[in-house]
Each structure stands twice: as C-alpha cells, then as structure tokens.
Amino acid sequence: MPINIPSKLPAYDVLENENIFLMDDKRAVTQDIRPLNILILNLMPEKERTETQLLRLLSNSPLQVNVEFLHTATYESKNVSQSHLHQFYKTFDQVKDRRYDGMIITGAPVELLPFEEVDYWKELTKIMEWSKTNVTSCLHICWGAQAALYYHYGINKYTLPQKLTGVFRHYIMNSTVELLRGFDDEYLAPHSRYTDVPEEEIIAHDDLLLLSSSEEAGAFMAMSKDEKHVMITGHIEYDAYTLSEEYQRDIAKGLETAIPKDYFPKNDPEAKPLNRWRSHAYLLFSNWLNYYVYQETPYEWD
C-alpha cells in the first residue's frame, strides 16, 4: 500500500524512481480509509538522506501511511537548508496537542557527550515523556535507542575503545515476539557508533526484553515488555553506500577510523559495497507497523 508524503519532498523523486508506491495529498483524500499517522523526529545531520531511508522502509505497509517530520527547536541543524525545514518539518509545539499511531526517533552524532550535555536533551526528554500518552508505539534508532534506554529505563551508555563500524552477524534471542516474525536465525545489520549499552543490564531489567544480539556488536534489538518502545542500536535503515561515505568523511577529517568490518568486498574501500541487510530491514519495519502500530492503535484517538 502507498506511503503519503508531500510531492515536493526531495525523497519523493528518489523513491518513485525505485518503484516505491507513493501517494500525494490530492490522491490520499479520495481514499475512505483510516491512515496510520507516523511522526519522525529526525536528529541526523543529513536529514534528506535519512528521510529517504526511512520512507523507503515505511512504504511496505498494509495501510496508507501519513508521515510528518519533526525537528528540534532548541538546536539549529547546520547540514540542511532552513527552507527545507520550514517546508517539511514541524516543531514539538506544533504537534504536542496531537496523537500519533507511531513515532521514530533517529540517531544523532552526539553519542560521545553525556546525555545531559546535548543541546536539545531537555526538549528530547519532553518529547519522550509526551510520547507515553500520545503515541501508540515508538521505534528508537542508534543514539535514539541509547537515549530511550537511559531516559525510560535508567540504562546508561559507555564509550568503546574505538569506533564500531561495519556489517555484523546478529542472532535471535527471543523468537516468540511478533517483531521478529519471519526473521532468519542469523542475519546481518550495519553499525556505526562510538558507544554501546551494557547487554547484561537490558537482560536484567524487569521491563525489558533483549530480542537480538551480536557477538561482536553487542545488544542490537530490545523491546519494552509493554511493547511500547522498540530500541535498535544499529542502523538497519542504512542504504548500501552510507558506511562507505561515513568512512571517507572520517578519513578526510584525519580520524583514525578502521575500515568498516565485513562491508567492502575483499576489504577494499574502492570496491562497490553490497546491501546484504535490505530484506530484514523491510521485514522489521513491516512487523513494527503491523503488530505494534496498526494492530494496537485505536481507530479514533480520544
């Protein structure tokens, strides 16, 4: 089924060329159905790239999906034009009186800072608190997952000796949850981060379930037992070239960054990387939308 986004959004042409089923506002209003309303708090610096990555995965839905983008009012992004933000994004004050079926909080390049020292931390905690009553299910990605584990469950992150970057093997820890329905016992997913969360604290927490883990990359997927929060510590939404471009960016900055593990063919940074996690990325987002958003959200919010 289609995903409903503004036809002037840069991601629209990219996704249309990929044969993703899209719908603009004019066509959407002619359909007599109740769409899912998804709010995306985009904290990534290259917002247009993240928009495309997430919208691509949200397109594989059983229902029409309306998407709105949110940006922080307390921090001005330096990597996106203000006209783009004004045209396609809202601030929390503009949406705080609404209710949403689902919400995605992305990663952010602030993981080496203590949470309280992030410029928009107070604003983010206000949004996460609001989500408890105004959102059916929240999907948290990378630093967004670490922020959720810290704010909602008191689990802090710690700094790794070096950047964790590459494509890693993951294993299912709990095969009974619907979020992992259809997953292989072993699957691949990308990581790109300098910090980690203690897996043993997730396992020991009374309100959390560890769903999937990696021997090299640690805890990958966790979920609250009330099924309201899903935390993903990696970047399964990344496209094939994202890790490559991050690696080249780090090298250009003079950083001592290792070649992303098991990513480039023959470990050659000049070789074309392949996307070997796409199917599970689609499956994860489809399961989240179906079982934790569509099946759980009320038809009419009171």
Q: What's the CATH H-level homologous superfamily?
A: Class I glutamine amidotransferase (GATase) domain
What portion of residues is helical? Answer: 25-40%
Number of domain units: 1
The second-level CATH architecture is: 3-Layer(aba) Sandwich
The amount of beta strand, in percent, is 15-25%
User: How far from one another are the termini?
Assistant: 26 Å
Helix/sheet category: alpha/beta
Figure out the total of helices.
Answer: 10
What is the average of the pLDDT values? 90
Quantity of strands, as a count: 12
The gyration radius over C-alpha positions equals 18 Å
- What is the H/E order? EHEHEHEHEHEHEHEEHEEEHH
CATH topology value: Rossmann fold
CATH class category label: Alpha Beta
- Overall shape: it is globular
Site (Important for acyl-CoA specificity): 111
Protein name: Homoserine O-acetyltransferase
InterPro entries: Class_I_gatase-like (IPR029062), HST_MetA (IPR005697), MetA_family (IPR033752)
Family: Belongs to the MetA family.
